[in-house]
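Bench notes, afternoon.
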Amino acid sequence: MTDRLLPGELRDAPDGRRTARDWIVDVALFLFAAVLGVVLLAETWDEHGTLAAVLDIVAGIVSLAALWVRRSRPVAVAVLTLLLAVFSGLAAGASLVALFNAALRAPRRSLAGIVALSVPPAVVFPLIYPTDDPYATQLIVGTLLTIVVIGWGLFARARRQLILSLRERAERLEAEQRLRVEQAREAERRRIAREMHDVLAHRVSLLSLHAGALEFRPDASPDEIAEAAGVIRATAHAALQDLREVIGVLREGTDGDATEPPQPTLAEVPALVEESRAAGMRVTCRIDVPDGSDLPEALGRTAYRIVQEGLTNARKHAPAAAVDVLVRGGADMVVEVVSRRPVGVGARDALAGTGAGTGLIGLAERVGLAGGRLEHGPDADGDFVLRATLPWT
């Protein structure tokens, strides 16, 4: 509805058709041109002969009719009406409307020629059809009227261009805002994917390990089965709780009361190691971090995720390997998880697995965001080493 009150050129999606406002303006200008032309023709009617009167009326009708296509052909209509206004009083009003339209819409190169064509009607017409007013007075009035019309058209043109430039700027800013929103959503999706892997992969691998033990030990005693089932139940409960936390991350931004769940820190690494030991892994852990109370939370959280990923990979790809976990502080923090190669097993066999490597990719991104460096791969002894060096600040 609002578009119908705007000029056709200023609509959001101009299609070349006149709006309601355009029709009102066109009719008003047509009536203005017709009334002005009739008045001028009446004032000079006594100076017309029969042939001159016919030519004046025909030229005026042609000029008035041409006004209906002035929007699409501003140069042609302006040239036609200005030439006819040299000898036609009825065309004078139409020439002023066409001159204003040319100042508003014509290309700048053509506008200079149209301004030059506006001079002859003011100079020649009073000579062809003199009135009781002095020629100098008619010339001054005609010249001032032409200057006012051109100036008004140029002002309207500048205002319209300003509106268009502001609209273009607003659309550009809106597009940039949409791009920023999409980038933020994509970053959030990547973050959620990392959280899903980091939080759930560890728990699920524990479930798989205990379930595998029950599968390969059908002759286990009832107490051993009950103990394994208890561990599976506890691990499944913990996995479910972790899943709720990840869903909380998904809900961030949609619920004003939603808060981010507490994130793990370096102090929870021993509990993480104990979970792996309870699952049957041989894990040694040494944490040597001076001034632990001054440890940045982000750094401790990154260290926890590194240890978690290292234990998860060892459990999936080298279940028979002993694992050494080392967290050492200093100028930089070093977090190292080493999966020892079992005796008599090649490094390639010891590290065999079906993982796609997405966990290490996400971990490398996390370490990179913390300003650190991540290294992983077999060393000279065939042990698989996951080592991250993190700046303290």
